[in-house]
């Protein structure tokens, strides 16, 4: 067993933010994805979209400057940046389904080696499922990146051969950022792009539910 | 003279019958027509089908309507939230039917109803539980799901400003489902924070043209609840 430090939630968000190019229109899901907004490089203009009808979403307001009418899809109070626009729900999802959103960063219960995503219900018999906008985002955004812990709290792998939970969408995930590695989903399956310092491939493979391939240039 | 303004909530909701399908605008607490929902509890219609993004929170508004046993079915995308105790209890007890619809499909089904389009193909939900029992068809190299329009008998809307013709504008993130639902029911009732004189709203900026609106009732200055999650 090697000596290594898994990334914190903040570090995972920071790692994702580093890869978002200038000019992209992005939707950030609830959980760790939301934290990505805090780490966007200040020298790039990246426009954040929220399902409830916002483009150009800014940071949270100061407690004494809250506009009660201005919330994001997670129902947190937000601000608008210069250049922002407002629109209704049908337009917002036309933007999503129509392929206009460059990137959606989502959390996941499971990601399969073919890019299948399960992130809305934990069992087929779930009493009262709540899908929200996840299915629309997963099929509509041009790139789907997942950011998640590498395993569940019980140590079960979240990167798997086949999803066991109900699917959100098939074959949509292209990249996964975990607390242990950055992994691309390719036609050949999971391909390791980056490993946290001190963690060896063997250990990473043991915590993953499908075969990993090592990219030639990977350093760890 | 066209004057869609009505004096009070009772007049705004007059004629809503048992068994009606009622759309309720809003996303979380923002844009939710609270006074109309409270009024519907007073009004007394039963056996309602509610179309809304969320299924209420705490024991007020939609949650109170459901708790009073007046809702047969709810059609929504995200029924579960921190405060959705009433929904969860009723659902678990088998006293409330649930139709879960992806949020974009919900918005588009409502839009389609308002636009006279009975069905449409969408990529959302293909290969998932949502697709069970639905027609699919291939266009190019992708598979799409046939979804049907979702009309209602009544739409309850919250606007920021409205005039006597029913032209509406919204505030902040408050247009959400309101601007879509306003088009999709024969009886569209608007609760507005402010009344505007005819001609005062800039035609370039009107979001909901008055043609969609049946009644306007003035409910001054309600501020969306801050704690809603």
UniProtKB/TrEMBL annotation, chain A:
Print the keywords alphabetically.
Transferase
Per its UniProt record, what Pfam families does this chain match?
CoA_trans
For whether the record's keyword set contains Transferase, the answer is yes
A molecular function (GO) term: CoA-transferase activity
UniProt xrefs under PROSITE patterns: COA_TRANSF_2
Give the UniProt family note. Belongs to the 3-oxoacid CoA-transferase subunit B family.
Q: What's the protein name?
A: 3-oxoacid CoA-transferase subunit B
From TrEMBL, chain B:
Q: Name one GO molecular function term.
A: CoA-transferase activity
Q: Which InterPro entries match?
A: 3-oxoacid_CoA-transf_A, CoA_trans_fam_I, CoA_transf_BS, NagB/RpiA_transferase-like
Q: Which UniProt keywords apply?
A: Transferase
- Of which family is this protein a member? Belongs to the 3-oxoacid CoA-transferase subunit A family.
Name of the protein described by the UniProt record? 3-oxoacid CoA-transferase subunit A
What is the organism field in this record?
A: Acetobacter garciniae
């Amino acid at each position: 067993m090697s000596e290594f430090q898994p990334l914190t939630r903040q570090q995972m968000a920071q790692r994702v933010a580093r890869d978002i190019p200038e000019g992209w229109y992005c939707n950030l899901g609830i959980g760790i994805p939301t934290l990505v907004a805090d780490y966007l490089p200040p020298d790039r203009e990246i426009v954040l979209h929220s399902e409830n009808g916002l483009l150009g979403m800014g940071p949270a307001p100061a407690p004494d400057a809250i506009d009660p009418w201005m919330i994001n899809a997670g129902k947190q109070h937000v601000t608008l940046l210069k250049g922002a626009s407002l629109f209704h729900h049908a337009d917002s999802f036309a933007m999503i389904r129509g392929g206009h959103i460059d990137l959606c960063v989502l959390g996941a219960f499971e990601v399969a080696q073919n890019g299948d995503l399960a992130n809305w219900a934990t069992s087929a018999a779930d009493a009262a499922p709540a899908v929200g906008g996840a299915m629309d985002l997963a099929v509509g955004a041009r790139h789907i990146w997942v950011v998640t812990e590498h395993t569940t709290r019980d140590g079960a792998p979240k990167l798997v051969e086949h999803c066991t939970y109900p699917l959100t969408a098939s074959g949509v995930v292209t990249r996964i950022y975990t607390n242990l590695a950055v992994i691309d989903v390719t036609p050949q399956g999971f391909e390791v792009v980056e490993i946290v310092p001190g963690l060896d491939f063997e250990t990473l493979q043991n915590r993953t539910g499908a075969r990993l391939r090592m990219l030639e240039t990977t350093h760890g | 003279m066209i004057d869609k303004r009505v004096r009070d909530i009772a007049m705004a909701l007059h004629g809503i019958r048992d068994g009606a399908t009622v759309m309720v605008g809003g996303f979380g607490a923002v844009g939710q027509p609270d006074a109309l929902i409270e009024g519907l509890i007073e009004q007394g219609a039963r056996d309602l089908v509610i179309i809304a993004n969320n299924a209420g929170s705490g024991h007020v508004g939609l949650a109170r309507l459901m708790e009073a046993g007046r809702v047969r079915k709810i059609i929504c995308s995200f029924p579960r939230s921190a405060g959705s105790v009433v929904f969860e209890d009723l659902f678990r007890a088998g006293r409330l039917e649930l139709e879960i619809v992806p949020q974009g499909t919900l918005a588009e089904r409502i839009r389609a109803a308002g636009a006279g389009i009975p069905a449409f193909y969408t990529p959302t939900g293909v290969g998932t539980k949502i697709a069970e029992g639905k027609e699919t068809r291939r266009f190019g190299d992708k598979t799409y799901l046939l979804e049907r329009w979702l009309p209602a008998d009544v739409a309850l809307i919250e606007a920021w400003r409205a005039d006597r013709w029913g032209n509406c504008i919204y505030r902040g993130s408050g247009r959400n489902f309101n601007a879509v639902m306003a088009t999709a029911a024969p009886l569209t009732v608007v609760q507005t924070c402010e009344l505007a004189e005819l001609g005062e709203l800039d035609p370039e900026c009107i979001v909901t043209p008055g043609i969609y609106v049946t009644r306007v009732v003035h409910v001054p200055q309600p501020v969306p609840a801050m704690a809603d999650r």
